[in-house]
Amino acid sequence: MMASTRSLLRTKSLISNLPRFSSNYKCLDVSVNNDNNITTVTLKRPPVNSLNLDLLSEISDVLTDLKKSKSPGMILTSSSDKVFTAGLDIMEMHKPDPERFKQFWYALQDVWMKLYGSPFPTAAAINGHAPAGGCLLAMCCEYRVMVQNFNIGLNETQLGIVAPIWFIKTMLNTISIRDTELALTTGRLFKTDEALAVGLIDEMATDKADALKKANAFFERFEMIPPIARAYTKDSLRGSDIEDLKKNREKDIQTTLSLITQPKVQQGLEFYLALLKNKKESAA
Ligand SMILES: CCCCC/C=C\CCC/C=C/CC(=O)SCCNC(=O)CCNC(=O)[C@H](O)C(C)(C)COP(=O)(O)OP(=O)(O)OC[C@H]1O[C@@H](n2cnc3c(N)ncnc32)[C@H](O)[C@@H]1OP(=O)(O)O
């Protein structure tokens, strides 16, 4: 196909599929790049983009919109200059109201299924720390570019909690079984260069602009690949993990609720929260 015909076809399909986004997001900025029609979703819940029910619900909605509009791709990033996301909002797990916790966990499952299983390509421009749930969101994306001198990893065991099996499968889809076991059992947070060495991220960046540039370049790889072939291939690789959670969704919610409300686990969370607060006080 001639290059000019290709670009005309692309322009036509972009016009007909232009995504329409709600302007009502409180915790997200959503913008579409005019050059390649890639959508950048920016997490914007200060101070640390911790994932509470509201933020998760908005991420879930935007993923639905992107799928409906047959988006050619999405970049996930943060408005903070030092935190991509601090993971799940600990306040949703500390002394939780059971009904609220169930909604919260359901929303997290939704985000995971939609992001890990999206038919469109995804990249994370990780411009800050990405512990626990932050690492999960980044690993759900197909490509990760991370700004130097930050931390990423599933550190749940450090908090006395356990990464659910679907978190673990997401890491197994990213790095080796051996590295996953060592990382999870020790709750290891990797510095950017260590994450690159182990394959947890794909590229390093000097700053956010560089991360966005490299993330945008990732999508050029798919210009000549029919989207349907791409999406089926991704589904062949990831679909069974998603089916497993779909089958066990209710059980996963109940088990997590009963574990998280155990007094020992609650004490551990309290201790961790106190550490976070003390860190601030001792720095002042
Ligand atoms: C065997 C029993 C198993 C039972 C359970 C079973 C399954 C449950 C599975 C649950 C899975 C959970 C996954 C998660 O995501 S847990 C969350 C893990 N997150 C973290 O460990 C990160 C904690 N935060 C930090 O390390 C730092 O905040 C930082 C991200 C590196 C940023 O540092 P800095 O810029 O210096 O900011 P501060 O530390 O001063 O924080 C500012 C402010 O934000 C509060 N905060 C930080 N993180 C969270 C959070 N995740 N949730 C809620 N709030 C958070 C922090 O306390 C400060 O608040 P104040 O300004 O009020 O002091």
UniProtKB/TrEMBL annotation:
GO terms under cellular component? mitochondrial matrix
One GO molecular-function entry? delta(3)-delta(2)-enoyl-CoA isomerase activity
The answer, when asked if Acetylation is one of the entry's keywords, is: yes
Q: Name one Pfam family in it.
A: ECH_1
Q: Where in the cell is it found?
A: Mitochondrion matrix
Q: Which domain of life is it from?
A: Eukaryota
Chief location bin: mitochondrion
Q: Which UniProt keywords are given for this protein, alphabetically ordered?
A: Acetylation, Fatty acid metabolism, Isomerase, Lipid metabolism, Mitochondrion, Transit peptide
Q: InterPro entries of this UniProt entry?
A: ClpP/crotonase-like_dom_sf, Enoyl-CoA_hydra/iso
- The keyword Isomerase appears for this protein: yes
GO terms in the biological process aspect are: fatty acid beta-oxidation
| Biochemical pathway | Lipid metabolism; fatty acid beta-oxidation
Catalyses which reaction?
A: (3Z)-decenoyl-CoA = (2E)-decenoyl-CoA; (3Z)-dodecenoyl-CoA = (2E)-dodecenoyl-CoA; (2E)-tetradecenoyl-CoA = (3Z)-tetradecenoyl-CoA; (3Z)-octenoyl-CoA = (2E)-octenoyl-CoA
Its subunit composition reads: Homotrimer.
Q: What does this protein do?
A: Key enzyme of fatty acid beta-oxidation. Able to isomerize both 3-cis (3Z) and 3-trans (3E) double bonds into the 2-trans (2E) form in a range of enoyl-CoA species, with a preference for (3Z)-enoyl-CoAs over (3E)-enoyl-CoAs. The catalytic efficiency of this enzyme is not affected by the fatty acyl chain length.
Q: What is this protein called?
A: Enoyl-CoA delta isomerase 1, mitochondrial
What organism is the protein native to?
Photinus pyralis
Source organism phylogeny: Eukaryota, Metazoa, Ecdysozoa, Arthropoda, Hexapoda
